[in-house]
TrEMBL record:
<keyword id="KW-0560">Oxidoreductase</keyword>
<dbReference type="InterPro" id="IPR002347">
    <property type="entry name" value="SDR_fam"/>
</dbReference>
<comment type="similarity">
    <text>Belongs to the short-chain dehydrogenases/reductases (SDR) family.</text>
</comment>
<dbReference type="Pfam" id="PF00106">
    <property type="entry name" value="adh_short"/>
</dbReference>
<protein>
    <submittedName>
        <fullName>SDR family oxidoreductase</fullName>
    </submittedName>
</protein>
<keyword id="KW-0521">NADP</keyword>
<dbReference type="InterPro" id="IPR036291">
    <property type="entry name" value="NAD(P)-bd_dom_sf"/>
</dbReference>
<dbReference type="InterPro" id="IPR045313">
    <property type="entry name" value="CBR1-like"/>
</dbReference>
<dbReference type="GO" id="GO:0016616">
    <property type="term" value="F:oxidoreductase activity, acting on the CH-OH group of donors, NAD or NADP as acceptor"/>
</dbReference>
């Protein structure tokens, strides 16, 4: 069951950037658990990747659901006894839906992007603690960077996704908190931005492919012991918080 391999879990991995991160890690020899809300969609994604020679194990995971999250932690404990890499990729953006009242939009977005990230991280921490090289990668967005947002010359300065931007700023705050808390255990926690990418979330707008977007997350997932913790970065380097 891949016990000798590095073991990774990617949330929201049945499509888009999450699937590309999962496939990229698997191509590098990692045993990857493909976290999917709908297991049938995960199995279909895994079948498609198998046709390309990439083996992935779909597992049911709704990060808004304690029962789902705890059941997955129990499965990982039973089958592997540890987890080496957690990629918190599952995320939503509801700013484009004008029918949703702001409070509900915020509640639903925070529930997935922020509370879901914290819920899954907490469930997996005892398993990451069993790893010799624990890594957590939080998929954030440069749209949350206060440093960039306050620069009028920044290319996305006029992008207005207030709910999403608030949620990813909270993800960044969690990243720093977990990095500090887990430093002594050698677990590295970083936030990355995959860049503007053509996926369902963006109505397939954006110049980057999911495979290009996945590179920075894969690099941070496979950081060696000299690598940073508590960083926020994209493919080009560090981003301002
Ligand atoms: N695309 C971009 O330009 C861009 C830029 C910066 C950051 N990001 C971030 O990158 C990540 C992936 O985005 P994407 O563009 O690949 O989006 P996507 O194609 O919409 O994929 C989102 C994934 O998250 C899953 N998900 C949603 N709610 C979930 C929940 N409660 N529990 C578990 N999984 C859940 C979805 O599952 P279902 O299929 O079941 O809905 C799907 O697999 C997100 O965190 C996003 O904010 C994207």
């Amino acid at each position: 069951m891949g016990l000798h391999k590095t073991i990774a879990l990617v949330s929201g991995a049945n499509r888009g950037i999450g699937l590309a991160i999962a496939a990229g890690l698997a191509r590098r020899g990692v045993h990857v658990l493909l976290g999917c809300r709908d297991l049938r969609r995960g199995m279909a994604a895994a079948d498609r990747m198998l046709a390309e020679g990439v083996q992935l194990r779909p597992v049911q995971l709704d990060t808004t659901d304690d029962v789902s999250t705890e059941a997955l932690a129990a499965l990982v404990r039973r089958d592997y006894g540890r987890l080496d890499i957690l990629v918190n990729n599952a995320g939503i953006a509801l700013d484009a839906d004008p029918s949703l009242p702001v409070a509900e939009r915020l509640q639903r977005t925070l529930e997935v992007n922020v509370i879901g990230t914290a819920r899954l991280t907490e469930a997996m921490l005892p398993l990451l603690a069993q790893s010799k090289r624990g890594r957590i990668v939080n998929v954030s967005s440069e749209l949350a960077s206060f440093g960039l947002r306050t620069d009028p010359e920044w290319e996305y300065a006029k992008f207005a996704m207030p709910t999403y931007q608030a949620s990813k700023a909270a993800v960044n705050a969690l990243t720093l908190s977990y990095a500090a808390r887990l430093q002594e255990q050698g677990i590295k926690v970083n936030a990355i931005c995959p860049g503007y990418t053509a996926t369902e979330a963006t109505n397939f707008m954006g110049p980057r492919t999911p495979e290009q977007a996945a590179v920075v997350a894969i690099n941070f997932a496979l950081l060696d012991d000299e690598g940073p913790t508590g960083a926020f970065a994209n493919e080009a380097g560090e981003l301002p918080w």
